[in-house]
């Protein structure tokens, strides 16, 4: 890259940062009614222009196919009438949620006479760096808007047409609600130098939320100076416990893997108690193979399945237990008990989402307490681990960090707390 081009991108990013910082002050004091009106305006515009959004998305999809991107990549990029309607529904749901900004907890009186409480406040300016999924443009903008933040969105080059069109609808909705258009800005260049500048702009951006593949997030972690809310992998497990309800286990584990393959909350490893394996594995794995799922199995699982007439099994390698496939591939391992299952999850898991299928309440309680993941589930599909299903309206990402925000990050995760002190003329002795 030439020095002149580098300078141009730096100037562009600095201008975006300055505008976002200025807009963040207006957003912090915007009323709930004003923010909700903007959200509903955007939802109306999305429904009105659904056909135009699909047309813009078709340009992105054609380009991705020409570039040889794989099926999982295309799936993440593709928008449908249903996904567009879900974006609109997410906006409406976020508008219906309580506004966290300005909420003050209960005051506590101290011996000195002063009253202490905490007030929820916006983070300020949030930078979102993401790949493929154009719906992130709407979800992220909506959550940042409702929580009183300004946001800078930098989507992947593969979705530039979709993101640019959606950005125009967002700014239309903001303007109609008398809020600054600069409160939501989409970086228009696909040059990666823009990302490099963005992750160092500590004077303008308060937090970065990266959403994308492991290589992207690893790069941002290595080069970034702005704090991040992130997750690297979604290596999600389901453990079928001894004595589990077989019909429930089959139904849930089928859904956890095959409802959609590309999301980060899809199950990647199935753990099965040896005492129930002969009963549950053959009918469940028939469903998987009928749906075209490749099964990578340990030697115990291979024996059980081969005894039932299964072929086309692949021996699981050590690398498989560490892999987030995001594809119709599933690793399966038999374990002796709950402790071995939890040990496996601790060693190979990514602290994203893990589930147990059990009728044993003591085992369920132990799993909930001892599995160190952002979402831990009992008798349900890992596919529920997202903001919409958790009642957050949408999510800006799923964090498997432990500080500030963990799991699906919704409105409260995009705010912070400051202390407020009420006095009556007290002075410190």
Automatic annotation (TrEMBL):
Enzyme type, top EC level: oxidoreductase
PROSITE patterns: PROA
Catalytic activity: L-glutamate 5-semialdehyde + phosphate + NADP(+) = L-glutamyl 5-phosphate + NADPH + H(+)
Major site of localization recorded for this protein: cytoplasm
Domain of life: Bacteria
EC nos: 1.2.1.41
GO annotations of cellular component type: cytoplasm
Keywords: Amino-acid biosynthesis, Cytoplasm, NADP, Oxidoreductase, Proline biosynthesis
Pathway: Amino-acid biosynthesis; L-proline biosynthesis; L-glutamate 5-semialdehyde from L-glutamate: step 2/2
Domain Aldehyde dehydrogenase, chain residue ranges per copy: 16-285, 314-385
Keyword Repeat: no
Entry-linked Pfam families: Aldedh
GO molecular function, one term: NADP binding
GO terms classed as biological process: L-proline biosynthetic process
Subcellular location per the Swiss-Prot or TrEMBL entry: Cytoplasm
Keyword Oxidoreductase carried by entry: yes
Family statement drawn from the similarity comment of this UniProt entry: Belongs to the gamma-glutamyl phosphate reductase family.
Entry function: Catalyzes the NADPH-dependent reduction of L-glutamate 5-phosphate into L-glutamate 5-semialdehyde and phosphate. The product spontaneously undergoes cyclization to form 1-pyrroline-5-carboxylate.
Protein name: Gamma-glutamyl phosphate reductase
């Amino acid at each position: 890259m030439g020095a002149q081009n580098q300078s141009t991108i730096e100037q562009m990013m600095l201008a975006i940062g300055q505008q976002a910082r200025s807009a963040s002050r207006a957003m912090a004091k915007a009323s709930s009614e004003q923010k909700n009106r903007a959200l509903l305006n955007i939802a109306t515009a999305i429904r009105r222009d659904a056909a135009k959004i699909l047309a813009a998305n078709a340009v992105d999809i054609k380009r991705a196919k020409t570039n040889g991107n794989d099926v999982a990549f295309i799936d993440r990029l593709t928008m449908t009438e249903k996904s567009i309607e879900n974006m609109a529904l997410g906006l409406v749901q976020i508008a219906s949620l309580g506004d966290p900004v300005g909420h003050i907890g209960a005051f506590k009186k101290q011996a000195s006479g002063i009253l202490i409480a905490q007030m929820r406040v916006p983070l300020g300016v949030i930078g979102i760096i993401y790949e493929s999924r154009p719906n992130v443009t709407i979800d992220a903008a909506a959550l940042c808007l409702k929580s009183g933040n300004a946001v800078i969105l930098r989507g992947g080059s593969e979705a530039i047409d979709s993101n640019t069109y959606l950005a125009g609808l967002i700014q239309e909705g903001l303007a109609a609600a008398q809020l600054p258009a600069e409160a939501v800005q989409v970086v228009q260049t696909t040059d990666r130098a823009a990302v490099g500048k963005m992750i160092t702009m500590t004077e303008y951006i308060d937090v970065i939320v990266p959403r994308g593949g492991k290589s992207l997030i690893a790069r941002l972690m290595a080069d970034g100076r702005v704090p991040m809310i992130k997750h690297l992998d979604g290596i999600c497990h389901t453990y079928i416990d001894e004595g589990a309800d077989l019909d429930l286990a089959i139904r849930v584990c089928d859904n956890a893997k095959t409802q959609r393959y590309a999301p980060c909350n899809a199950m990647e490893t199935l753990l099965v108690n040896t005492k129930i394996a002969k009963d549950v594995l053959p009918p469940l794995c028939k469903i998987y193979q009928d749906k075209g799922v490749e099964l990578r199995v340990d030697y115990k699982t291979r024996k059980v399945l081969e005894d039932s007439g299964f072929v086309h099994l692949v021996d699981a390698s050590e690398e498989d237990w560490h892999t987030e496939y995001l594809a119709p591939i599933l690793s399966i391992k038999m374990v002796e008990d709950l402790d071995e299952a939890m040990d496996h999850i601790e060693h190979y898991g990514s602290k994203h989402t893990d589930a147990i299928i059990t009728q044993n309440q003591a085992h369920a309680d132990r799993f909930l307490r001892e599995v160190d993941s952002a979402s831990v589930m009992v008798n349900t599909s890992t596919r529920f681990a997202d903001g919409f299903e958790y009642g957050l309206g949408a999510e800006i990402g799923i964090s498997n960090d432990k500080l500030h925000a963990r799991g699906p990050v919704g409105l409260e995760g995009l705010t912070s707390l400051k202390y407020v002190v009420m006095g009556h003329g007290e002075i410190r002795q």
